[in-house]
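As noted in the main text, all predictions were made from sequence alone. Below is one such record, for Glucokinase.
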Amino acid sequence: MDTDLVAALDIGGTKIAGALVDCEGALLVRAQRPTPARDGAEAVMRAVADVLAELRASSSWGRARTVGIGSAGPVDASAGTVSPVNVPAWRGFPLVDRVAAATGGLPVVLVGDGVAMTAAEHWLGAARGYDNALCLVVSTGVGGGLVLGGKLHPGPTGNAGHIGHICVDLDGDVCPCGARGCVERIASGPNIARRALDAGWIPGPDGDSTAAAVAASARAGDPMAIASYARAAQALAAGIAATATLAEIDIAVIGGGVAGAGEVLFEPLRRSLRDYATLSFVRHLTVAPAVMGTDAGLVGAAAAAWASQEKGAGAPTPQAAALR
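Prediction:
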């Protein structure tokens, strides 16, 4: 087939990555630039354009027929705009139109980064084979996405499943989003570290005060580090259980840097989930670590592009049908 690839973009506050991806999820050509997040809107767009130009220089570019974008959010897929919290210059930035222009008018599909990760894990990762799934990215923030009835469910604006801003503490701290007691305000990496420090946890000789360092202390038995991760796990469990109760999901897949803590996070999470997922139809809920790693954004953006392409076509490919 002459047109059997999609182009994928993964746009975050640190890097802008691109790839040409085939219908089995293989990344055939890659390009990447740092995100000039503190520069102006056009500087960031130039970095995107440079990534696309590198992909277009490949002899395989002519086989691409759709572009999928997974972007840090909020995104508005209905308007084709993005307003990433970690890219201050982009507020209501018309990314879809600009990428379409930079690729010679190819169709463009936009989803949030949590939805992209979900698409990747459902296509090729830990949620494969599950018809109803919640996938979470727990890192600097907490994002997520949903698969319902075997289909990716991004919602009208591409933000459905954004579990980080479910309230799990009615009188909790004010979140940067403006609400109180959000999952993100309790379970994100910076907040795990903040809470441990506030409780008297002391970093090691290297001065590392990140959530990863807190996790290392928890493994060594530090009670304040253990308590901070237990509180994060409790917040995640409450949010997951609420989602499962509403949507009857079968599995919750957790990725992102905080998930790298392993059983320091997953053991108290499973324990807390038993306290919140109590109804008969959610007790079976499985919790698993994500497996797609740093390529999840690109694979997920490609998955969204393949699904969109199949939706507008006639007979679906087996790969695209698995994404619907």
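The radius of gyration is 20 Å. The chain has ten helices and twelve strands. These features were considered when defining construct boundaries for the mutagenesis experiments described in Section 2.9.
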